[in-house]
Write a structure and sequence with these properties.
The complex is a heterodimer of chains A (about 325) and B (about 350).
Chain A: H1 2-5, H2 16-19, H3 22-29, H4 35-61, H5 81-87, H6 90-121, H7 128-134, H8 137-140, H9 143-153, H10 160-168, H11 181-209, H12 213-222, H13 226-255, H14 258-263, H15 275-284, H16 289-318
Chain B: E1 4-13, E2 16-26, E3 31-35, H1 42-50, E4 57-62, E5 65-66, E6 77-80, H2 92-102, H3 107-120, H4 136-148, E7 154-158, H5 166-183, E8 186-191, H6 194-200, E9 203-208, E10 211-216, H7 218-223, H8 228-233, E11 240-249, E12 252-257, E13 260-264, E14 278-283, E15 288-289, E16 296-306, E17 310-317, E18 320-327, E19 337-342, E20 348-350
Parallel strand pairs in B: 3-8, 3-9, 6-7, 7-8
Antiparallel strand pairs in B: 1-2, 1-4, 4-5, 9-10, 11-12, 11-14, 12-13, 14-20, 15-19, 16-17, 16-19, 17-18
The chains are: A mainly alpha (about 325), B alpha+beta (about 350).
């Protein structure tokens, strides 16, 4: 070993103690090509423990029977049982459709409000610095707090929103927003957009700062109006940032059931039931961790596919 | 092609005045250089001409039309920016044709115009590329292509060469001059580089502190600077300023300075009002030689700097350092006493109090 690790120029050991000294061995090892793997080992172990193990554990769960309220069934391998059940589960399909509506509508709304706010705040007017901080406030609120706050404001009898709409004359009678299947999803989407549009504002504002003002001067001389400048200069220059923000928000929206859990719990009926909420309820209401795991794996795969396709598409456009 | 008149243009930010009462005239097809150090207001003036910044007063007249309230796109001007300001997400082809695209010019006409401009600037092979894939010099050409393709009345250049390396800068300078000769469009060109100003301009406006110090052709600016600022700003090495007193000696004028007297013959200025008073003599380094003569300066050699074609010799004349541009073979010894012959016909006399050239402009 010691011979094979011997590097040219290293002095042969003089005594037996020097030959077996750990410092000497480490010194010799550091001259070999194995050294870099040794240095990577701690972080590789950490990543395995923190990221890889839970992911794999979650996945294997979906192939097992795991019902905490039915210990008699054991926890044996059941292969694709849960997946087969999913295909025949109408609630799964409703949840999938609702997830698509929930995510798409929220993202579009958040992006539009975020973009408008960022463009407005990017103007060098007095007070914009303070406003830029104030506008971030909704995003600072925890989802749970924001959810309860809006639930109260949208409450059919005590809520301030019904009261205002009645006074303005837009409503003729109190409306129970979350009790009507036709308005529950829309109301939840508006709350979600209110809560998360500052995320887009923040990132787009950072992106806007990076666009040289000379481009707009040149565009002015070239005869491009405000809308043409937005379409042909600002948005293309923000493409990378927008792509990153959309991916992050989609992941967040697909994975977090908290806001819907507080506002509607998936109701009325199944009208606001989304996949994350379904998986959550499956695990913590029905204690069926096997099926919940299978639902999570499906979400995981959808998200991977989405991120891959999205990055690919936005890159193709760039070239 | 058009004339340009600036009439009493002012610009201030709050109480800070950056341009005060600017008057300029540029003839059709002329090349006006706005020259000055950083912060002199030259770029602000260009932005006002372009319409990118409003003035605080005065008129901008392009081709006989007052354009104070006209949008930049309707002034029929084109501008080349220091940063080039190429649209990074568009191809070179689209960058050059963008102005025409915005003006709803048909695709076929646009493409042929772009092709013509690209050929003129020798960038036809780059049309499909994005600005990020181009070198500095190529970007510069694309920016110029974008300017010329619309055939504007007036070109505005904002320090277009300052981001290029020294060699490329000289090449592109020649290119701009050739382009101007060929197209004949009026140009306003902002720079802090006196060589660009001297080589390109048919007219140079030297600016400082928001005020035009002198507006004249390059030759006049160089030979008859209106004041000591212009005299010192133009020329490298800079003009020598020798302080002394102007006296009448028999029929001629003499400048008495700390280390003797300089006989002034052939002075074109009317300096009678300053006889017996202190003056500053502006002497260009190249108007001195190592030979003897009637008008000479004596001093000890302080520094010798051979540059190849010339030798710069700094001579201590009674405590005032005088730089002379001598021939490459003139290599005086350090510390040696030296006599410099001065071509006094090229000497300018300034009033030390106001800094202005005595007797006014020629």
């Amino acid at each position: 070993m010691s011979r094979s690790l011997n590097m040219p120029g290293s002095r042969p050991p003089r005594t037996i103690w020097e030959a077996i000294s750990p410092f000497r061995l480490i010194g010799e090892l550091s001259e070999t090509r194995y050294w870099m793997y040794l240095l990577l080992l701690p972080s590789a172990l950490l990543i395995t423990a923190v990221v890889l193990y839970p992911t794999v554990y979650g996945m294997q769960m979906s192939f097992r029977e795991m019902r905490l309220n039915r210990p008699d069934l054991g926890n044996d391998w059941v292969l694709f049982k849960h997946y087969v059940r999913m295909i025949n589960d109408p609630i799964f399909w409703v949840s999938l459709r609702n997830t698509a509506v929930w995510v798409t509508s929220s993202i579009v709304l958040e992006f539009l409000i975020g973009l408008i706010a960022a463009l407005a705040l990017n103007r060098d007017l007095p007070g914009t610095k303070l406003l830029a901080v104030l506008i971030l406030l909704p995003y600072f609120l925890p989802n749970v707090v924001a959810g309860h706050m809006w639930a109260l404001m949208l409450d059919p009898r005590m809520g301030v929103i019904n009261d205002l709409l009645l006074k303005v004359g837009l409503l003729t009678e109190y409306k129970a927003w979350f009790a009507d299947p036709t308005t529950a999803m829309a109301a939840a989407i508006i709350v979600e957009a209110w809560h998360s549009f500052p995320f887009f504002t923040l990132l787009i504002m950072a992106g806007l700062k990076g666009i040289p003002t000379d481009l707009y001067k040149a565009a002015n001389i070239d005869g491009a109006g405000a809308f043409a400048q937005l379409r042909l200069i600002t948005l293309p220059m923000l493409k990378t940032i927008i792509a990153a923000a959309v991916i992050l928000r989609v992941i967040g929206l697909v994975n977090s059931p908290d806001l819907l859990l507080i506002l509607t719990s998936g109701g009325p009926g199944r009208s606001t039931q989304v996949l994350s909420l379904y998986a959550f309820q499956m695990a913590y209401k029905d204690f069926n961790f096997g099926y919940a795991g299978a639902l999570s794996v499906v979400m995981f795969v959808f998200l991977m596919l989405f991120a891959w396709a999205y990055v690919r598409l936005s890159k193709v456009n760039q070239e | 092609m058009a004339t340009l008149s600036i009439k009493g243009v002012r610009k201030s930010y709050g109480s800070l005045e950056v341009l005060s009462n600017i008057d300029l005239e540029l003839e059709d097809g002329g090349f006006l250089v706005l020259l000055g150090p950083s912060g002199c207001g030259k770029s602000t003036l260009l932005s006002i001409i372009a319409g990118l910044e409003p003035s605080s007063g005065g008129d901008v007249v392009i081709g006989g039309r007052t354009v104070n309230d006209v949008h930049p796109k309707d002034r029929n001007i084109a501008m080349v920016f220091q940063s080039y300001a190429l649209y990074p997400t568009m191809s070179v082809q689209r960058n050059i044709g963008f102005g025409l695209e915005m003006r709803k010019v048909e695709t076929a006409a646009r493409e042929s115009a772009v092709a013509g401009a690209a050929e003129l600037l020798q960038i036809s092979h780059l049309l499909e590329r994005k600005p990020g894939q181009l070198s500095g010099g190529q970007r510069q050409r694309v920016a110029m292509g974008r300017a010329i393709v619309r055939q504007p009345d007036l070109f505005l250049f904002d320090e277009p060469l300052s981001n290029l390396d020294a060699k490329l800068r000289v090449e592109m300078r020649t290119e701009i001059k050739r382009l101007h000769d060929r197209l004949g469009t009026s140009v306003v060109y902002v720079t802090h580089d006196q060589v660009e100003a001297m080589t390109l301009g048919t007219k140079v406006a030297v600016m400082k502190g928001g005020v035009i110090q002198q507006l004249a052709d390059p030759q006049t600016i160089y030979e008859r600077p209106a004041n000591m600022f212009v005299a010192g700003f133009i020329g490298s090495p800079t003009m020598n300023f020798l302080e002394g007193t102007l006296v009448q000696d028999g029929g001629g004028l003499v400048l008495k300075h700390a280390a003797g007297a300089l006989v002034l013959t052939g002075i074109e200025q009317d300096v009678r009002s300053h006889i017996g008073r202190p003056v500053v003599a502006g002497i260009r380094p190249e108007t001195m030689s190592a030979a003897g003569g009637a008008s000479t300066l004596q001093g000890s050699v302080d520094v010798v700097e051979p540059t190849g074609p010339d030798t710069m010799v700094i001579v201590n004349v009674g405590g005032q350092m005088i730089t002379a541009r001598l021939g490459s073979r003139d290599r005086p010894k350090l510390g040696a006493e030296m006599t410099l012959a001065v071509d006094t016909a090229a000497v300018n006399l300034f009033d030390p109090e106001s800094g202005n050239r005595i007797g006014g402009d020629v």
